[in-house]
């Protein structure tokens, strides 16, 4: 009986993880499109928006921990505290974040692209149709991340467009990979 409960709990956690990944992918696509269309907009606005998103996410984690009895997981509190700190920093000092923003985004793109590349390689080994296209897109996301890390000053002028394209590609790839994973 205990194993049945553990399996059910694990399935619920996986479902929650997939929901979160879908929301993040859609948010990446939306932010990517906005950044591509409004590339001339200041990056300070983006940093401030990300700060408010982090604060809202922190509130959700805290509410979930303190309101829902079945979710008394300490990781919710820790995540809430980290998101609050990041959110406050982004909202209060966006100018400081803008200076390190290309480095942060480069690292995020490389990590996300690497994760997608590994999943894409798995799809290729499983002989899933179109897996090569996913591998190419993942490599492009990684390359954009490396470009941002290597040339943060030069990229600063076109950072919004580069980040927008990268977020859009990463979001689309994540949704496609999740759809293919669900089809298995």
Computed structural class = mainly alpha
Total beta strands: 0
Calculate the terminal CA-CA distance, rounded to whole Å.
28 Å
Q: Approximately what portion of the residues adopt beta-strand conformation?
A: under 5%
Anisotropy-based shape: flat
Largest sheet: none
Count of the separate structural domains: 1
Count of helical regions = 7
Q: Give the fraction of residues assigned to helices.
A: over 70%
Description:
The chain is an all-alpha fold. It has one domain (23-183). The chain has helices at residues 2-37, 43-67, 74-92, 94-125, 131-150, 152-156, 159-183. Helix 4 runs parallel beside helix 7. The longest helix is centred in the N-terminal third of the chain and has 36 residues, at 2-37. The two termini are 28 Å apart. The mean pLDDT is 83.
Summarize the structure.
With 184 residues, this protein is mainly alpha-helical. The chain contains 7 helices and no strands. The chain has one domain (23-183).
Topology of helices and strands:
Elements: H1 2-37, H2 43-67, H3 74-92, H4 94-125, H5 131-150, H6 152-156, H7 159-183
Helix pairs in contact: 1-7, 2-3, 2-4, 4-5, 4-7, 5-7
